[in-house]
Design brief:
The structure holds two protein chains of two kinds. Chain A is mainly β. Helices cover 0% and strands 44% of the residues of chain A. Classes of the chains: A mainly beta, B mainly beta.
Chain lengths: 110, 114
């Protein structure tokens, strides 16, 4: 199993919107609506921000949204804030009943 | 949400077995999947495997020959054993709850070195 493909880095200015992609195959992202996204600040544990492609856990801002088209899932953050600067990881359920992560994307808020 | 806490040795010698325990508090261990995930220095997350409260397991194909995850529901704990470790197994090891990994422990740094 190869890791899901994410861009290494993205950047945006405060108030702008950014989108991070997560590309897999029909055996993971494309085949199931079980894509999750996590936010990780340096030295901290990851935090779930999106699950089941586009659902937000309680307490997560509606500035975070998820979507999927074919084998690619996307995380959009609108109204960028300084505290959004972090590493974002995607994950997907696979046909082998396992979980596959992406390589992570570093978001820099300019 | 439950709280999770990893515990175990921080230093393991090459070729030996890495053992970690995750203690779950603030909720039941029943009816959910319980995961182990690791993060090598400066790298992304790697899913190791998970266990259902019944004891059913799934493991990462790349690690399945060396990994065992077990559960002790009476003590609300689940454990990870990774055999024949090398320097490549040096990482922060996290435990996390449910399929969607909605709650995470703070992580345990494990270094493989002689």
């Amino acid at each position: 199993q190869s890791a899901l493909a994410q861009p290494a880095s993205v950047s945006g200015s405060p108030g702008q919107s950014i989108t991070i992609s997560c590309t897999g195959t029909s055996n993971d992202v494309g085949g199931y609506d079980y894509v999750s996204w996590y936010q990780q600040h340096p030295g901290k544990a990851p935090k779930l921000i999106i699950y089941d492609v586009n659902s937000r856990p309680s307490g997560i801002s509606n500035r975070f949204s998820g979507s999927k088209s074919g084998n690619t899932a996307s995380l959009t953050i609108s109204g960028l804030q300084a505290e959004d600067g972090a590493i974002y990881h995607c994950s997907s359920y696979t046909g082998s009943a396992t979980v596959l992560f992406g390589g992570g994307t570093k978001l820099t808020v300019l | 949400q439950v709280q999770l806490q990893e515990s175990g040795p921080q230093l393991v010698k090459p070729s030996e077995t890495l053992s970690l325990t995750c203690t779950v508090s603030g909720g039941s261990i029943n009816n959910y999947y319980w995961n182990w995930v690791r993060q090598p220095p400066g790298k992304g997350l790697e899913w190791i495997g998970h266990i259902y409260h019944t004891g059913s397991t799934n493991y990462s194909p790349s690690l399945k020959n060396r990994v065992t995850i077990s559960i002790d529901a009476s003590r609300t704990q689940f454990s990870l054993r990774l055999t024949s470790v090398t320097a490549a197994d040096t990482a922060v090891y996290f435990c996390a709850s449910k399929w969607e990994l909605d709650s995470w422990g703070q992580g345990a740094q494990v270094t493989v070195s002689s």
